[in-house]
Amino acid sequence: MLQSKSFVKKTKQGKVLKVVREHYLRDDIYCGAPFCKVCDVAAARLDSNASTIIIVDTNVVLHQIDLLENPAVDNVVVLSIVLEEVKNKNLAVYNRLRALCSNTLRRFFVFSNEYHKDTYVKIEPGESPNDRNDRAIRVATQWYQHHIGAAARVLLVTNDRDNKRKAIEGGIPAETVESYAKSLGQPALLDLIVQAPAEDVTMEDAEDLRPSKRKTIYAEHKPMSEITSGMHRGIYHQGKLRVNRYNPFEAYVGSESIGDEIIIYGRTNMNRAFDGDIVAVELLPQDCWKEEKSLAIANDEDDEDDDVHLAPSSADDAPRVSHPSQISIGNKSDMPTRPSGRVIGIIKRNWHTYCGSLEPMPMPAGDGGIAHALFVSKDRRVPKIRIQTRQLGNLLDKRIIVAVDSWDRLSRYPSGHYVRTIGEIGDRDTESEVVLIENDIDARPFSSQVLACLPPLPWSVSAEDIANPIRQDLRHIRVFSVDPPGCRDIDDALHCTFLPSGHFEVGVHIADVTNFLHSGTPLDDEASQRGTSVYLVERRIDMLPKPLTEDICSLRADVERLTFSVIWEMTPEAEIISTRYTKAIVKSCAALSYVEAQARMDDSRMADPLTTDLRNLNKLAKIMRQKRIERGALTLASAEVKFQIDTETHDPLDIGMYQIREANQMIEEFMLAANISVAKKILEHFPPTSLLRRHPTPTNDMLEPLIQTAASVGLSLDVTSSKALADSLDRAVGDDPFFNKLIRILATRCMSQAVYFCSGDLSPPEFYHYGLAAPVYTHFTSPIRRYADVIVHRLLAASLGICRLPDIFQDRPRLTGIADNLNYRHRNAQMASRGSVELHTLIYFRKRPTYTEARILKIRANGFIVFVPKYGIEGPVYLTSRGQKGGGEWIIDEQQQKIKKTNGEVSYGVLQPVRIHMEVVESQPNRPKLELTLVC
Amino acid sequence: MEFVNPEGLRLDGRRPMEMRQLRAEIGVVSKADGSAVFEMGNTKVIAAVYGPREVQNRSQQSNDQALVRCEYSMANFSTGDRMRKPKGDRRSTEISMVIRQTMEACILTHLMPRSQIDIFVQVLQADGGTRSACINAATLALADAGIPMTDIVTSCSAGFLNGTPLLDLNYVEDSAGGPDVTVGILPKLDKVTLLQMDSKLQMETFETVMQLATEGCKAVASYIREVLLENTKQLESRRGV
Amino acid sequence: MVGLSLGEQTFIKGGIDQDLRTDGRKRLTYRPIFVETGIIPQASGSARVKLGATDVIASVKAELGKPNPSYPDKGKVSIYVDCSPTAEPSFEGRGGEELSTELSSALERCLLGGKSGAGAGIDLSSLCIVRGKVCWDLYIDGLVVSSDGNVLDALGAAIKAALSDTAIPKVQVSANAPSDEQPEVDVSDEEFLQFDTSGVPVIVTLTKVGGHYIVDATTEEESQMSSAVSVSINRLGRICGLTKRGGAGLHPTVILDMISAAKHVSEQLMNKLDSEIAAAEACDEMES
Predict the structure, then answer these.
(1) Rounded to the nearest 5°, which phi and psi values hold at A11?
(2) Which residues of chain A neighbour B214 with C-beta distances below 8 Å?
(3) Rounded to two decimals, what is the model's pTM?
(4) Considering the domain C10-287, what is its CATH architecture?
(5) What per-residue confidence (pLDDT) applies to C196?
(6) Is B146 exposed, middle or buried (0-12, 13-18, 19+ CB in 10 A)?
(7) Hey, are the CB atoms on B82 and C63 less than 8 Å from each other?
(8) Are A716 and A607 in contact (CB under 8 A)?
(9) What percentage of residues in chain B have a pLDDT greater than 90?
(10) Least CA distance to A22: which residue of chain C?
(11) Which intervals of the chain are annotated as region Disordered (chain A) (predicted)?
(12) Cβ neighbours of residue A709 under 8 Å, at least 6 residues apart?
């Protein structure tokens, strides 16, 4: 059990702390080749008839990870020193490398050279750590060469000239990445190689043959030491750069040092920073703050189109309007209050891979050679990326993934390389995958470790479950569920019993997911990572494996299921007398759809017990709803659309607005009540570690567009509180029936979204849920499809003393991390759903040019933005061709938001209905888009 | 932080069930009645035993057994960051007490009434597991002093990090905030005389971690026996027996 | 401390009178000296010195600090000695404190010169990094592990060996820092500075027992002393510091006589120590 040899490594940490650590060298580290006669081959990962074993150096991993991930590259030995260096330099690449090493389909083997007695090298006097590590790599390669002998060729792959020379001098075969990739005989592999900056220059020359014309486009980034000292002196500010989703030439840097957001206008000021980069910013002189804007926009080389897109459902989706009041008022003396600045250095890059397509270009003469192309990401925040490819003809009509490698200050665009092809542009499956990739959604099947955590199938309630004293047997109670048609993952069911006392007993029964999902298991880790199920138009990506989602947990009709229930005693006036929480067993008697439930309630001939229950519930729900509205809850609205999908082709057959019925509102009301009850209960027991959900009060800035739009139709809204806003929304009744809903839709999109948070991170007044006017709120009712509810179930169970609180709740930073991830996943899931709807809208209209009614949202210099309620989309209607100033035959008044034909025949104002024509056009090959035109 | 990499190696190259290198030397303080140095990796302690001798403070004298006293101290240079604490802080007092109680349990105190035995342990270098090292050093020093004992006491610690039980935590692993179970056993009698743990641990996990620490104690015991045997052989040859 | 019978006392004194001490040494002979360096890897430098049964450890730790405003171009050095109860049960608790303080101040006087650091064995200005702002603070810690007399000389030797073992990282100061702020310091982990320890003196303690004085007294011999004079002498034979201990008065000529004897002995000790240090360092290097 003892070590082979002891060694001491001295390192310095911090200022002068001398750290001494032991470093044991071993003789039980094996080579990983299954044909080895000396080593233990139990853990061997290399191919048994590998002809070449390659060893890569750190820079190859850091820069060429895309090449390594290609299945053509195999039998790779990854040295522990390389892993260590990669980990220190780039954690994302490290994780990808680790994934390769643990992927059983790939032949990557980790050799712990640093702990092997023959391959450990000690730093020599005067040797830099880099040189020492390079030497360690060579020593390990040599060891492999001697160890494997004639059984296979050992090859060192390095792009470091010095390292390669020294290796060859020492008799070690070494090659550059390029020559190695060439030797594999697959030309497409060469596209994956990141070009060295030296080659970048020649490429630039090829673009423009006059070198004298090469000019510096961007300012040089300041060295790190200068940035640090500048930040100390307060002249530079550090923060994460966020590019405006709707205007990629505008970015924001949230700076803690000045406590405000700094606006960056234009690519020149952004100075090669990407969205998500940590940057250092210098403020511009205050008198430049305003001029910068017009200047920046005038400078912008490629003015991008406003595409038709799905109407936003919250402020987080909507374009940001930086200073509406200023633009409309145009008061010169009013100095802009928002500081603007420019990026002077990048502290940490957030480069990853991007999904998109190549900019259409003619095929260069002499096919097969290297072509230079520009890649346009689907994410508009990302600038175009220059790539080299040998398969241009093949890629032009494809969705591809590209990685960024560098951005030279002489180059307008960053350089990158091709990573892989997803499929043909416009193809539904390809575009759906793009939506998933763009939103970082893991749609892979569940791993075998995860599936191993499932209970054996077929599962049914066991005698033990029934005998369990913590579980109440409610099978005799008439429990039923109401969901959208075709719902398979039923997480909630209800019951309503009339008590002799004249009160009602109302129960909300939620699938007892935590009975199957135990903390710390691979299944739990996976669910926590996924955070939520994702609903696309044509498919659902589950948070939990299918047997749990659709069977074991789902509260289907006529089967016994385990639940976690909230049971109230209520007066007929919907006053809650008492609240009880218990684990239970129920047997649902009916799984109704909203339509069915509604029909039962409406059909006066029906008087069966189930229908009576429904009607009682509905009565209670209406009272509860009224009370909630009196408290100041907002009735918001969004333009949700529903597709009918062809079961064979998965193409959309019909599209229309989702109809909200009383039955929907009834279920919603009880779910809200259950969530609020549970939130109170867990917060009472675990004040610092509860997971709650808050909806921040919108700032006046955010509500400004709503107030303006309302004002332009002569409506004044009181936004001082949610109650005041709710009341003024109620009063906003126009001539046509749709007007009120339209105003509500506009109000909804001004709000930011509700977010999860850990109760210990905020003070109680901040817990407030604005939209629901509830002091505390959480999610309890959908544990099958939301992980937040799983956490809340565990908290509730612990508060009842049913089970121990998992260790994770002792660790507040981790809990905060979970909440952050849930918010991120939740938001991505929504973005993906929207993306999927947009995609299907496009597919639907491809064959169906349509005339429809739209509403004007905003009048702009060259036309207006309309909202199409029926399809839930919005987009621009151009009255004049692009670039042309003035309105042609139209008189456009942006200030007053009015539009008039020169001959005075027709005039439009905001929120007025117009008739438009919708059609899919392909102005560029393979780039179909929806076009809206005015029908007069 | 990753304390055990996917290859199953710890930060210092050990595997989870491996102990650091042990080294012991007997008779380092020539003026003491018994003394020893004990090293577990970079943790290094000296123990010196004085006695059995006259009880210094008469009021503490006991007529049926020996008085065992212990003092634990750390050298200023023993930690990475230089210590500036005066002697006798709470931690030292606590460890002194732990060592005294553990050693008292195996010394045949009834054979030496009205006498006093002093055990002094001095930490020269601390790199995790000082308690265990002190107990092991004290055992050797008591044996060197020829004090009658029922059995030797040996000690070792184990922890639980990254979901893996780890034997003999070093300073870095100890500072990770995971549990640290220190066990002391009487190897021949197969009894646990010392058991301490900080932090939290699940019941089932605790069992395996404690089992591992006990295994570690047994390994220390066999090493200590070897050292004692070697020492005795040298004494023999020096005396020409 | 040491309970000696009258016979034993007479025997010790008689031996010294006849220049044949109880362990066979002459009056001015040292016990064999044994040096080991680098024994505390966490310290910047360390050494262990054994002088017979006396066993001491010295360690040097360097930390970044701010110079004393009165001496802006000098670093700071402080010496602390701790007497471990392993050496002597009476050092238990606070029992060793008196001796520790006495040894610490004697060592500071012998090795560090006056308050200004003038005449110190270590060049304090070499510890300065940025005048008035950043300097190295050296913390020298001595630990008495086992004591059999003459602890002071042993500590002096251990400190000298530890200093010669000390490597201090090279420091880069960022050039563009404004003058009114504490400069940013970058500590190298590859390059180290070594000290020139040739100027560090050795300490020779002469113990007066009866009518004679002896060097390197054992605990038994120390118990019979009337007074002792510790002289620190550098390589050039200059006296760097001096302390007298013990109550009995000494005649000035005796003191001068003792100093000249000390000077003579110091040369031998210095050479012996240097060769021991060199051997220890060579050994240390081979191990690592």
Answers:
(1) -130, 160
(2) none
(3) 0.68
(4) 2-Layer Sandwich (3.30)
(5) 79
(6) exposed
(7) yes
(8) no
(9) 66
(10) C41
(11) 298-340
(12) A746, A857, A858, A910, A911
Residue with tokens 């009540």: A673
Q: Determine contact, residues A97/A89, Cβ cutoff 8 Å.
A: no
Cross-chain residue pair A22–B17, CB shorter than 8 Å: no
pLDDT at site C215: 93
Distance in Å, alpha carbon of C138 to nearest chain B alpha carbon: 11
Q: How far is CA A610 from the centre of its chain?
A: 42
pLDDT in tens, B176-229: 888 899 999 999 988 999 999 987 787 888 999 999 999 999 999 999 999 999
Report the alpha-carbon distance of residue B166 to residue B213 in Å, rounded. Answer: 9
Q: Which of C39, C57, C84 shows the shortest C-beta gap to B120?
A: C84
Here the ipTM equals: 0.90
Q: Shortest CA distance to A511 belongs to which of A826, A818, A789, A801?
A: A789
pLDDT of residue A151: 84
Query: Minimal CA–CA distance to A583: which of A656, A514, A683?
Result: A514
Chain A residue with minimum CA distance to B42: A22
CA-wise closest residue to A794 among A566, A592, A519: A519
Residues with Cβ within 8 Å of residue B95, at least 6 apart in sequence: B72, B130, B131, B134
DSSP characters for A880-926? S-TT--S-TTEEEETTTTEEEETTSS-EEETT-EEEEEEEEEEEETT
- pLDDT reading at C288 higher than 80: no
Domain with CATH 2.40.50.140 in chain A: 849-934
The minimum CA-CA distance between C159 and chain B, rounded to whole Å, is: 14
CATH code matching the domain that covers A234-348, chosen among 3.40.190.10, 2.30.42.10, 3.40.47.10, 2.40.50.690: 2.40.50.690
Q: Where are the beta strands (DSSP E) in A571-694?
A: 576-593, 641-645, 652-657, 691-694
Q: Side chain identity at A395, as an amino acid letter? A: L
Fold for the domain defined by A197-212+351-425: OB fold (Dihydrolipoamide Acetyltransferase, E2P) (2.40.50)
For domain A25-191, give its CATH number from 3.40.50.1010, 2.60.40.10, 1.20.1250.20, 3.40.1160.10: 3.40.50.1010
Residue B2 lies in a domain: no
Best B76, B78, B99 member to test C by mutation, with max C CBs in 10 Å, is B76
Tell me the per-residue pLDDT of A696-735, one tens digit each, with 9 for 90 and over. 888 777 788 788 778 777 777 787 877 888 888 877 776 7
Range of the domain at B142: 22-239
Distance between C238 CA and the closest CA of chain B, angstroms: 32
State how far the Cα of A82 lies from the Cα of A642, in Å rounded to an integer: 52
**Length of chain A in residues, anyone?**
936
CB-CB neighbors (< 8 A) of C288 in chain A: 8
Q: How far apart are CA C263 and CA C236, in angstroms?
A: 10
Amino acid B108: pLDDT:
94
User: Does residue C190 have a pLDDT over 70?
Assistant: no
At residue B156, the pLDDT reads 95
Residues of A in contact with B6 (CB under 8 A): 98, 101-102, 110
Q: Using CB atoms, pick whichever of A21, A26, A810 lies closest to residue B172.
A: A21
**Is the pLDDT reported for residue A320 higher than 70?**
no
Q: How far apart, in whole angstroms, are the C-alpha atoms of residue A348 and residue A602?
A: 61
Strands annotated E in chain B:
22-26, 34-40, 43-54, 67-74, 115-125, 154-161, 164-167, 180-186, 191-198
Chain A residues within 8 angstroms (CB to CB) of chain B: 1-3, 6, 8, 17-26, 80, 98, 101-102, 110, 112, 114-115, 807, 810
**Per-residue pLDDT for A648 more than 90?**
no
C20's tokens: 């044949």
Using a CB-CB distance cutoff of 8 angstroms, which residues of chain A are in contact with residue B21? 2-3, 6, 22, 24
On whether residue B12 sits in a domain, the answer given is no
The whole-number pLDDT of residue B40 equals 93
